[in-house]
Design a protein that fits this description.
By secondary structure, the chain is α+β, with helices and mostly antiparallel strands. Helix content is 40%, strand content 16%. The strands form 2 sheets. A 4-stranded antiparallel sheet has the order 1-2-6-5. Strands 3-4 form a two-stranded antiparallel sheet. The structure holds 3-iodo-tyrosine (IYR). The site of 3-iodo-tyrosine has 9 residues, from helix 3.
């Protein structure tokens, strides 16, 4: 059994309360500008920006610090096309047959459909995978704990980092997602979580006119 090893907490900086208020408000202001965007420009951007955003995502807390995520960054046009075609097969089935009327009604305000052009237009498509097992330094196989929660948190940080960098993203969950393992050559015990489509918005990008719940609707103080 490995012994716990501790080092002093060197990275924490306390801010005066007034400054904290200002920082919290400024961060909210920055975040409330974020919109999920479906219309992308094909403008390229340096890979380094994506790498830094992924480093930010990798700071997420995770069950037993197992860091059960894997990110496949797709830049290759042929691979993007393969993903688009496979996704559209699933979405056609979803929109035409599989989706219950109620689900289609919930999606109506977003104007989504079976066409996923953005998968080819945007310069980056990041496939997020959840790993179920890993190897310890000794080489033996271990189970990962709370993998979905961990990867969900890391994805949230990734979305935040992308927005903070000045780009837009679409959180895209194909109706069935298993095809990503084949196209991206990921092992069977790794589960696709979602796709993040990343780039600049197109000049004529529009977003649905939807509102966010206010604090009183989403939080209770007891
Ligand atoms: N995966 C489909 C349907 C869809 C489902 C939800 I929940 C959304 O928030 C948006 C779309 C699609 O992406 O078109």
């Amino acid at each position: 059994m490995p012994k716990p090893q501790f080092v002093p907490l060197m990275t924490y900086h306390e801010h005066p309360v007034e400054e904290m208020k200002q920082r919290a408000a400024a961060f909210y202001n920055e975040m409330q500008r974020r919109r999920t965007v479906r219309h992308f420009s094909n403008r390229s951007l340096p890979r380094e920006i994506i790498e830094q955003c992924l480093r930010a995502a990798s700071t997420a807390p995770s069950g037993a610090n197992m860091q059960p995520w894997h990110f496949v960054v797709v830049e290759d046009q042929t691979v993007k096309r393969r993903i688009r075609l496979a996704a559209e097969v699933e979405e056609r089935e979803f929109y035409r047959h599989r989706a219950p009327e109620e689900w289609l009604e919930a999606l109506a305000p977003l104007g989504t459909n079976e066409h996923k052009q953005f998968l080819e237009t945007a310069p980056y498509v990041i496939a997020v995978f959840v790993r179920r097992h890993g190897k310890l330094p000794g080489g033996y196989r271990v189970k990962y704990y709370y993998p979905l929660k961990s990867v969900g948190i890391a994805t949230g940080i990734l979305i935040t980092a992308i927005h903070h960098a000045g780009l837009v993203a679409l959180t895209y969950t194909p109706s069935r997602i298993r095809f990503l393992n084949d196209i991206l050559h990921r092992p069977a015990d790794e589960r696709p979580f979602l796709l993040l489509v990343v780039g600049y918005p197109s000049k004529d990008a529009v977003v649905p006119d939807v509102r966010r719940k206010v604090l009183a609707e989403i939080a209770t103080f007891v």
